[in-house]
Q: What sequence folds into this?
């Protein structure tokens, strides 16, 4: 039985995830630095990530089409998330 990969978001001790600035599953494009833009294939997973992570010190999200949808079958996909931690 194979396991799906997970993405882990973690803040420093005592800090919490206060906003999710970007979340896309598909072919997000990494720009200069740590910013992302939507690629040609994307599923808007912002609500899924917010529900799993907001207000927590850390969270994990399973990366699979069952959890995040399949915006473009047959295309290799990745999950990109930008989160803000605050105390």
A:
């Amino acid at each position: 039985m194979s396991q799906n990969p997970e993405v882990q978001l973690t803040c420093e001790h005592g800090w919490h995830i206060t906003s999710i600035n970007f979340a896309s599953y598909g072919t997000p494009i990494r720009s200069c630095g740590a910013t992302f833009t939507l690629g040609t294939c994307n599923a808007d997973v912002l609500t899924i990530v917010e529900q799993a992570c907001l207000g927590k010190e850390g969270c994990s999200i399973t990366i699979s089409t069952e959890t995040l949808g399949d915006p473009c079958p047959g295309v290799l996909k990745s999950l990109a998330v930008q989160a803000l931690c605050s105390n």
Summary: The longest helix spans residues 46-53. Residues 57 and 85 are 8 Å apart (CA to CA). The mean pLDDT is 90.
